[in-house]
Amino acid sequence: MSAEKPVENGDLAAAGPFSQDEREAVYRAIYSRRDVRNEFLGDEVPREVLMRILDAAHHAPSVGFMQPWNFIIIKDRAVRQRVSEAFSRSVKEEEEAAIEPARRGLYRNLKLEGILKSPLNICVTCDRARMGRTGLGRSQQPETDLLSTACAVQNLWLAARVEGVGVGWVSILKPDELRSILGVPEHIAIVAYLCVGYVDRAYVRPELEVRNWARRLPLDELVFDDRWGERAHRGSD
Ligand SMILES: Cc1cc2nc3c(=O)[nH]c(=O)nc-3n(C[C@H](O)[C@H](O)[C@H](O)COP(=O)(O)O)c2cc1C
Q1: Average pLDDT score, the chain
Q2: Which numbered atom of ligand 1 lies nearest the CA of 37?
Q3: Structural domain contains residue 119
Q4: Considering only CA atoms, which of 10, 57, 15 is closest in space to residue 165?
Q5: What's the number of domains the chain is made of?
Q6: 3-class DSSP assignment, residue 93
Q7: Which of 27, 54, 106, 199 has its CA 20 to 30 Å from the CA of residue 206?
Q8: CATH number, residue 49
Q9: Is the CB of residue 112 less than 8 Å from the CB of residue 34?
């Protein structure tokens, strides 16, 4: 894919706003997507549903159209058992100690994974050399391959939501332990470990907010105008 080719008429199509109903459906998916840990029903997700979700992930943007991702679908309970044990070790040996003492009680009551409760897990990886060491767009920001893979995870998460499939991201896992359990080669980065399965109920707000761990920050405080820290005159004051 290197010979230059002119853009033809059919290469562009209309890209105006969606209809009101379509917009509402997309925003509903965004606002009602949750990180799921405990609400998995356990029914199997049919292959064709799973492939629709992964195809949505595969249509994420990626730097230089690098598509650096792979998806390891993990159903084997023995494999998930090993990942679950690795999670428990990470919590006990490191994560808990890193939490400020006053919050440790609250932390211990949080459920932070659904590795065995969900019927399948997906490990999303990033091949950092898929299109050469730097490739288009990565000479100044080499980490954009990892960011691209995170975009794929978000697409996956939203597509799963519209299929009634919940997703929970587990990051309290040492990448090297995952690498050894899943046989991931050294040159492949592990980006996400996801618990996946049907749900029929989900929190309306982030569970960490419901349980008083954190709250959603006001958007207005996070938006600047033109320069860091600057806010143009807003509202009626
Ligand atoms: C990169 C990343 C890592 C995360 N790791 C964990 C995790 O290890 N355990 C967990 O319970 N939730 C994890 N989460 C989920 C967040 O806690 C959750 O997204 C956040 O609380 C907001 O809730 P919501 O996703 O339901 O809106 C992770 C989310 C992201 C994006």
Answers
A1: 94
A2: 11
A3: yes
A4: 57
A5: 1
A6: helix
A7: 54
A8: 3.40.109.10
A9: no
Minimum-distance ligand 1 atom for the alpha carbon of 202 = 26
Of 57-66, 212-221, 227-236, where does mean pLDDT reach its minimum? 227-236
For residues 63 and 1, what is the distance between their CA atoms, to the nearest angstrom? 16
Q: Once rounded to an integer, what is the mean pLDDT over residues 114-136?
A: 92
Q: For 35-51, what is each residue's pLDDT tens digit?
A: 999 999 989 999 999 99
pLDDT of residue 95: 87
C-alpha span between 136 and 231 (Å, rounded): 34
Query: How far, in Å, is the centroid of ligand 1 from the Cα of 33?
Result: 11
Other CB atoms within 10 Å distance of the CB of residue 128: 19
What is the residue type of 161? R
The whole-angstrom separation of Cα 220 and Cα 226 is 14
Does residue 230 belong to any structural domain of this protein?
Answer: no
For residue 16, being part of any structural domain is answered with: no
- Comparing 2 with 139, the larger pLDDT belongs to 139
